Amino acid sequence: MRLDERIERRRRRESGANRLVRDISALDPTAHPDEPTGRGPTLERLLDRLDPAFAGELPDDTYVYGPKGAGKSALVTALFDRLAETARNRPRVIHTTTRASSPPAVEFAYVDGRAATSEFALLRAVLDAVVEESVPSGGVGTAAVRDRLGDVLGRARRVVVAVDHVGEPETLPVERLADVFAPVSESLSYVAVGRAAPERSDLATVEVPPYERHALADVLTSRTSDGLARHALGHDAVSDVAAWADGDAHDALAALYGAAVEAADAATDRIEPRHVEAGMAGVPADCCSLGRVGSLSASRRRVLRELVALEGDDRASVTRAAAAIADSPTVELSAATVKRLLYELSELGVVRRVAGDAEGDCGPGRPPSRPEPNFPMRVFERLADPER
User: What's the pLDDT score for residue 8?
Assistant: First the structure.
């Protein structure tokens, strides 16, 4: 955590107030710290893969993989931000007809695969990261963007691109990246980040295992010390959440975020066991990450916000939920469109379809399914509306 960020958090506190929650964003499971905790050995293995870059040469393509909540994105984003900053501050090499005094610096860039879901979008994102002028988002073809990227890099520039969240529904698989970047492979290599083990045996890998319990407890302690008042949460509670989360930092942080909200809403000066239990209960088993939810289109997020707010019979079936959501003035979609989006979100794992018992929606046969959000709803609501 940088010093200026710590100072700014102090400034945001209410003057003289003894608040339970100093900065709830410190517990945000979608936010990554500048200095990841508990991943030193993994960081060293990744740096070993990137080692040729420090001599001005392209490293081999690499795939970083591991389960949800293992800290893959936190590690890669922090490392690539630091490497990109270092490369920008390094003086440019002036080449002459004889020789350069030192090899050209390898550049580093980060692309979120959830925002670059097509070949065109990925190439455009990389091009946008390596040029200063604006890059058009439409009106040009994939081949033109690839040619432009090749011209920009040429023979003198080298760039390593981290492509995060590959292999998810609606994102490019890791096996596709080699073909996408093949025409510029002499100037560009990639570090892909995903969950599933690779199918290619020739691809260099760095596996990120789930957090050990003590390491996850250290992560939670670091985050709560930035976000909560002193003595607001006991060490035993942190250990309990770390054990419950079973190595998943996303779920652990979501549970603590929910617990802090419960305690703050109850106007207590300490997070009690009942608040922690409520926070853990609010995180579905095998849930979708909130980062994934936040990357959805605006229309899908609006549908989810209304789904979370539904109560009772309005969520008894997909049909009823779609009709109730379409009635909201903030959605501006027909019931048929909302129903289609709910089915799409179910296919993506963002919504679960649970066997229901509502009558009158589908006639004879099996009962209709009930749509249930498959993510921490309380945290989602607060992230979508921080002023609540």
Answer: 57
Flag whether pLDDT at 365 surpasses 70: no
The verdict on 201 and 215 lying in the same domain is no
**pLDDT digits 0-9 by tens, 109-130:** 999 999 999 999 999 999 999 9
Neighbours of 81 (CB within 10 A): 15
Number of neighbouring beta carbons within 10 Å of residue 365 = 6
> Of the residues 166, 191, 207, which one is the last residue of a structural domain?
207
Q: What pLDDT was estimated at residue 18?
A: 46
Greater confidence, 339 or 102?
A: 339
Instruction: Based on the fold, state whether residues 223 and 264 are members of the same structural domain.
Output: yes
Q: Note the pLDDT of residue 357.
A: 59
232: DSSP letter: S
Tokens representing 205?
């890998």
Q: State the CATH number of the domain containing residue 312.
A: 1.10.10
Kindly give the residue spans of alpha helices, DSSP state H, lying in the chain. 3-12, 40-50, 72-89, 119-130, 142-153, 174-181, 213-227, 235-245, 249-265, 273-281, 290-294, 298-309, 318-326, 335-347, 377-384
Range of the domain at 367: 290-384
Predicted TM-score of the model (pTM): 0.87
The residue from 229, 263, 281 where one domain ends is: 281
Total domains in the chain come to 3
* Helix/strand/coil for 166: strand
Q: Give the C-alpha separation, 315 to 323, whole Å.
A: 10
How far, in Å, CA of 273 to CA of 151, rounded?
Answer: 60
298, 155: one domain:
no
Rounded Cα–Cα distance for residues 274 and 264 (Å): 13
Banded model confidence at residue 35, pLDDT cuts 50, 70, 90 = confident
Parallel, antiparallel or unpaired: strands 351-355 and 369-373: antiparallel
Tokens of 91: 């003086």
Query: Span 231-239, mean pLDDT?
Result: 93
